[in-house]
Amino acid sequence: MRIHSRRMNLLRGINLKVIAEKMPTASGAECKAVCTEAGMFALRERRVHVTQEDFEMAVSKVMKKDSEQNMSINKLWK
């Protein structure tokens, strides 16, 4: 997470370790998607800094997409 968020303007006190623990099976691409989505949430609200809440919303959005894709693949195999 630190690699993908190093060029982002983060609010002080953001705990990236907690965010990473919320997505234990995530790939590098999914981590990148979470950082990008968190930045987009901040931009939509016309803010310069990304908050912990932005990251949490991004995790739920990205991991939701991932679980939906896994469910559709499982339906194909049954």
Q: Could you write a compact summary of the structure shown?
A:
The protein is mainly alpha-helical and 78 residues long. It has 4 helices and no strands.
Verbal overview:
The chain has 78 residues and is an all-alpha fold. It has a single domain (2-77), classed as Helicase, Ruva Protein, domain 3. Helix content is 68%, strand content 0%. The protein contains four helices and no strands. The protein has helices at 2-5, 16-21, 28-44, 52-77. The termini are far apart. InterPro entries: 26S_Proteasome_ATPase, AAA_lid_3. It holds the Pfam family AAA_lid_3. It is found in: Cytoplasm. This is AAA ATPase AAA+ lid domain-containing protein. Residues 14-56 form the AAA ATPase AAA+ lid domain.
Characterize the quaternary organization of these chains.
Answer: single chain
Number of domains: 1
Which structural class best describes the helix and strand composition?
Answer: mainly alpha
> Major beta sheet, specifics?
none
Radius of gyration: 14 Å
CATH class designation: Mainly Alpha
Number of separate strands: 0
The topology string of helices and strands comes to HHHH
- Helical content stands at 55-70%
Low-confidence stretches: none
The dominant shape is globular
Strand content: under 5%
Q: How large is the count of helical segments?
A: 4
End-to-end C-alpha gap: 35 Å
**CATH 2nd-level architecture:** Orthogonal Bundle
Round the mean pLDDT to the nearest integer and report it: 88
Outline the fold blueprint.
Blueprint: H1 2-5, H2 16-21, H3 28-44, H4 52-77
Helix pairs in contact: 3-4
Organism: Aphanomyces astaci
InterPro entries: 26S_Proteasome_ATPase (IPR050221), AAA_lid_3 (IPR041569)
Domain AAA ATPase AAA+ lid: 14-56
